Amino acid sequence: MMVTLLNVIVDGLLTGSIYAVIAMGFCLQYGVARVLNVSHGEFIMLGAFATWSLYTMFGINPLVSLVICGPVMLVLGFLVHRTIFTRIRVSSESSAEAEGNSLLASFGLLFIIQNVALLIWGPFVRGLEFMSFPVHFGGTTFGANRLITPIFAVGISLAFYLFVSRTRVGKAIRASAQDPATAGLMGVNINNVLAICFGLGALMAGFAGTLVSITYTISPTMGLEYTAIAFIVVVLGGLGSISGSFIGGYILGIIGSIVTYFEPGLGLIAYYVIFMLLLMVRPTGIFGR
Amino acid sequence: MNIAIVKSKKLLPPGLVFLIVILLATLPLYGTDYSVILLTSILVYAILTVSWAIFSGPTGYISLASAAFFGVGMYTAAFLGEALPLVVVVIIGGIFSFILAFLAGALTLRLRGMYFIMFTFGLSQLVKYVVLWWEAHVGGTIGRFVINKDFLTVYWVIFVIFIAALLTTYLINRSKLGLALQSIGANEEAAAHTGINVTLVKIVSFAISAFFMGAAGAIMATRWTYIDPSIAFDPLLSFMPVLMAIFGGMGQLYGPIIGAAIFGYLEEILITRFPYYYMLVFGIILVVVILYLPKGFVGLIQKWRRGESGGAT
Questions:
Q1: Rounded to two decimals, what is the model's pTM?
Q2: Hey, are the CB atoms on B129 and A272 less than 8 Å from each other?
Q3: Which residues contact B96 (CB under 8 A, 6 or more apart)?
Q4: Structural domain of residue A229, as residue ranges?
Q5: What is the pLDDT of residue A1?
Q6: How far off is chain B from A45, nearest CA to CA, in Å?
């Protein structure tokens, strides 16, 4: 009994820690840049395939890829926001219109990134053999990759949280989230800050992609599934609350592993039921105001 | 708004509309088999887009639940296709979707904007995974075969549904319901204060739009002959109507049809040979349209006509 309990908890922490990384980036993109980024999962997929390619072609350790993929995604996200979403924001008549148009443009981005990936990597499901040697822990056995992933995920999440809440850039980001117009008057270059937010979201997606590729199989069409998870976690934690997304990720991960333990096919159904119930009963999320 | 309606009459006089309808209705008599099949898939997209625009066009509530309604229609045909005549199956498929939309609408009274979009997306995913689970554990199967109908029958039925969807949209636009939907889109609080039962109007029009999607799903199941949850509830079916409506432009009845026709045709010629390039082009068009043509194709035509008539408006 203790052994299965330990298994369920480790599984929950593993998925939960990845969910938290995914959702924090998604949350920043929506909460500040006001882009409900449906293509978030595609950035995760790009990160995962970049890691896979670097590992299989050049033998680069996936944990080193973290340092490569993340920053590349940051730049990519920044450029995407400056070329597409800044223009939408400036040319839209109201913020509601800007949000709607940004959502639709991110659909376009989803199709573009996914099909470029299909052209490059083909439709195959891939997997990495990385640190899959067994580790004995608490009377049961785990793959080392399943233990190392949450450790890195927690580190990334905490660093991200500290960056947004403690640094000067983070201050500009939070000011822009509260009141873009006033933040602009205070000397914040609003277009750049919003693009940085979007880029930081992509950075987190890139990190998440690398972590996913270490533990799970990957395919070019995997993105939407992770975007849906990000939706659910962000609603769970409250739209716009980064700490809410962090905790929400773990809550969802644990719930998922408990449900999957009793009935393997019901994991995703449980996620969506929680999601719909939350939207009906408490759309501001459990930590929202 | 009145100006726009007058303009649409100038562009498509009633006689011309009638002629097009007759031409489409009699297509199998003179067209090739290929043209009939091509038009079938274009008309399916047109039904999805036109019926999506019944609710989402005037109110601005973006629904991503189309896949759920279309899929429910498909599974209705899979379960009842052998027992009942085709027309009855199609109508029941529509009714099931109507009921699902009615219940979902009744549950989501409070949701607006992004929350509504997320909820409808969640709804279609939830239905998909529930059917998937049900089929694996209770049905003991992954997919189902649906009794095949010949492509001419499918074409006629699709055509009738298409005309019904168009007529419904036309009548709604001219009725008090249409006015109520438009005022909800303009300002929901103000609409409620003028005595419109906002909730009822939203639920009813959402359910009506779902009816046509369900009916289209039921008939298309007999065309595709094999369905499983990931085909029937493909998220793409939720996104396509939105994209086509935006691309065509939603201010006019014919906007969504133009969008559906262009994308249906593009898909037909590209998807078999270059599937990835098709979706890639699709994505690029979408981004470009959002950036440069936010009012869609119709907006472009109207702008061009205005320029032609010397800026009279």
A1: 0.86
A2: yes
A3: B72, B73, B76, B214
A4: 2-127+152-281
A5: 67
A6: 16
